[in-house]
């Protein structure tokens, strides 16, 4: 994975999309020997000149075996065919490895993949194209103004970078970048929650004294006595005493008269 325009987490100014390129499978060309030629490799028929049969009548002495040009060409053609098959096998294995690796990235990236898979191809001696490298773009920019959403996004990016069975060095770099952005988002989220808690406590502190003063004022109002009311009460009490005395006096006069 080749990091392109890697973005840093900035809480004060969130950046727009900044895709990173997960080039988890750098191009690795397969060496094709010069002896492997397309025309010779495809033509699997070889010309072999058979020696003439010895006459059964003639008794010829044994002669030392000497390779002819035809036998030498036959051996060379067989070696070329073997080299051809080995190169094709290597290209096919590399092609399968690259496709499996990049598909794992794409599947795990989900909505944050910025496109499909880009392959680097090499043409084999058989004329076919084989994938020898690949890359997948993924969006690694933080979510503007939402650190909690950024944390969730970076978790997906990290899983996508490490999705293949054998992550490459560049895969680990993208995963480390996502981990760093995730940690910074957590710090910002904690700071926001701390500010909210502090604001809430300050609000409670400001409202608590005023409520206490109101509660304390109520008994004072209940216990307060209006001087005018107190005078009226005293006047009423004096009148009741005089009336009771007059009543007692009348009763006594009636008794004496009787």
What does this structure look like?
With 258 residues, the protein is mostly helical. The protein has five helices and three strands, in the order βααββααα. The chain has helices at residues 38-42, 69-109, 147-161, 169-223, 227-257; strands at 19-25, 113-123, 129-139. It has a three-stranded antiparallel beta sheet. A hairpin with a 5-residue loop joins strand 2 (113-123) and strand 3. The chain is rod-shaped and about 180 Å long. The termini are far apart. Residues 1-18 and 39-58 have low confidence and may be disordered.
Brief summary:
The chain has 258 residues and is mainly alpha-helical.
Radius of gyration equals: 51 Å
Overall spatial form = rod-shaped
Strand order of the largest sheet: 1-3-2
H and E order: EHHEEHHH
Query: Which percent bin holds the helix content?
Result: 55-70%
Structural class: mainly alpha
* Largest sheet, strands/sense/barrel: 3 strands, antiparallel
Q: If helices are DSSP runs of H or I spanning 4 or more residues, what is the number of helices? A: 5
The tally of strands reads 3
Low-confidence stretches: 1-18, 39-58
Strand content: 5-15%
The separation of the N and C termini measures 132 Å
Mean pLDDT: 75
């Amino acid at each position: 994975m080749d990091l392109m325009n890697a973005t840093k987490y900035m809480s004060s100014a969130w950046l727009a999309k900044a895709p990173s390129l997960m080039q988890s499978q750098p191009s690795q060309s397969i060496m094709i020997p010069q002896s492997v030629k397309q025309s010779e490799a495809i033509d699997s028929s070889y010309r072999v000149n058979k020696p003439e049969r010895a006459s059964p009548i003639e008794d010829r002495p044994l002669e030392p075996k000497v390779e002819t040009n035809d036998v030498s060409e036959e051996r060379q053609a067989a070696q070329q065919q073997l080299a051809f098959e080995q190169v094709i096998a290597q290209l096919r294995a590399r092609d399968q490895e690259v496709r499996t690796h990049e598909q794992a990235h794409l599947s795990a990236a989900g909505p944050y993949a910025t496109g499909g898979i880009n392959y680097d191809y090499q043409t084999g001696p058989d004329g076919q194209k084989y994938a020898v490298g690949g890359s997948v773009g993924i969006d690694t920019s933080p979510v503007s103004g939402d650190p909690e959403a950024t944390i969730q996004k970076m978790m997906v990016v990290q899983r996508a970078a490490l999705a293949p069975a054998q992550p490459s060095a560049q895969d680990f770099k993208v995963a480390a970048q996502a981990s760093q952005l995730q940690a910074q988002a957590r710090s910002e989220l904690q700071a926001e929650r701390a500010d909210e808690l502090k604001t809430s406590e300050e609000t409670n502190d400001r409202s608590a004294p005023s409520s206490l003063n109101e509660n304390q004022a109520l008994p004072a109002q209940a216990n307060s006595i209006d001087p005018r009311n107190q005078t009226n009460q005293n006047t009423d009490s004096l009148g009741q005493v005089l009336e009771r005395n007059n009543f007692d006096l009348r009763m006594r006069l009636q008794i004496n008269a009787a």
